[in-house]
Each structure stands twice: as structure tokens, then as C-alpha cells.
Design a protein that fits this description.
The protein has 183 residues and is of the alpha+beta class. The chain is built from 3 helices and 8 strands; from the N terminus they run ββαβββαβαββ. The termini are close together. The model has no long low-confidence stretch (mean pLDDT 92).
Length: 183
């Protein structure tokens, strides 16, 4: 008997609580005096660096980094088309990878009240080891689902044995098939 080709899809999904979080924020200051604007941004950065270093030393933060201080000026115009004094802006991007998610929550609550801090977002993540283990488990579960489906089709056709001949992620199969059955 000729081989019967059965093509099926297997999928599996799991949810895993995050283990780390990257908090991204920006220190922003503005005003009419460039030196004052830069000074307030630098002071806020110093305060933030000290807090981040203390949290890193306590094991709450795995790593953190800051960008460089950016300063720009703009000249606004009034409704009559007349130039107004320059407005200076300073900004500094900061990111911190928290291993202690409870500490992250408390820290965000503290810094959210500072007028020089803008919280840009939090990216929730797994450690590399957990991500790889979860990906492997989900892939194995998806293959089991596909094999169960292929076996059901084969049984309906009166075939006894199913052998996987090709496995791929969605969209990656060429002209082949993921499972073949024979009687």
C-alpha cells in the first residue's frame, strides 16, 4: 500500500509569570535658563543613580544604565507672531532590569511622584534559561498534539501506524507534510 500523507497542525500555549522586568524612564527638565535646566537634570540623575546603585547592591536590580544627557533649545512664538524667550530642555534615558518584581512596584510608586521623571514603560521578561526551557516544553507539547491528531485521522482511515516525517513552525513547511501514515 502506498503511504498516506496526513498533514496536521499542533499547537500549545502556556503562561509563565515574569521573572524580570526592564523599567524604562526619562529624566526631563525644561526652563528659561540653560544652566538651571541642565543642573536640575544632573541633580535628578545623581539621585536616581544613587538609588539604583543601592537597589543593585541589595540584589533587587540585576543591571541598570543611563544614556547621555541631551540638551536642546526652542524658541516659542506668541499668538501675534513675536518671538518669546528660549525654552531649554534636557533629557536623560534610564533603564533598570529588576530581578525583584515587588521592589520594582515600590520603586515605580516612589519615582512616579517626581516631576522630573517620566516612566516610559515596563517590559516583562523571563530569564534566558527559563525562556529556553519553556520554548522547548511548548514545542514538545505541540508535537504531541499534532501526533494525536494525525493518529486520530489515521485510525479513521483504518491505518495503524503514524510516523512523523517533517515538523516545522507555521509557514515554514515547503511542499512536504508533517506526518505520514501507513497501513
Amino acid at each position: 500500500m502506498r503511504d498516506v500523507i496526513i498533514t496536521v497542525r499542533g499547537e500549545h500555549e502556556t503562561r509563565v509569570a515574569p521573572e524580570e522586568a526592564v523599567a524604562r524612564l526619562t529624566i526631563r527638565t525644561e526652563g528659561g535658563e540653560r544652566t538651571d535646566v541642565m543642573g536640575r537634570a544632573t541633580d535628578a540623575a545623581s539621585m536616581l543613580r544613587a538609588a539604583l546603585t543601592a537597589r543593585q547592591d541589595a540584589g533587587e536590580i540585576r543591571e541598570w544604565s543611563t544614556g547621555r544627557l541631551a540638551v536642546r533649545s526652542e524658541r516659542p512664538w506668541n499668538s501675534e507672531g513675536k518671538p518669546l524667550p528660549l525654552v531649554h530642555h534636557a533629557s536623560l534615558d534610564v533603564s533598570a532590569t529588576f530581578a525583584d518584581l515587588d521592589a520594582l512596584s515600590g520603586w515605580l510608586g516612589e519615582i512616579a511622584e517626581l516631576d522630573t521623571i517620566q516612566i516610559d514603560g515596563v517590559q516583562w521578561m523571563l530569564t534566558d534559561a527559563t525562556r529556553k526551557a519553556v520554548e522547548a516544553d511548548v514545542a514538545a507539547q505541540a508535537v504531541r498534539v499534532a501526533m494525536t491528531r494525525a493518529t486520530a485521522y489515521a485510525a479513521a482511515l483504518g491505518l495503524a501506524e503514524v510516523t512523523a516525517v517533517e515538523v516545522a513552525d507555521v509557514g515554514l513547511l515547503g511542499g512536504g507534510s508533517p506526518a505520514a501514515a501507513s497501513g
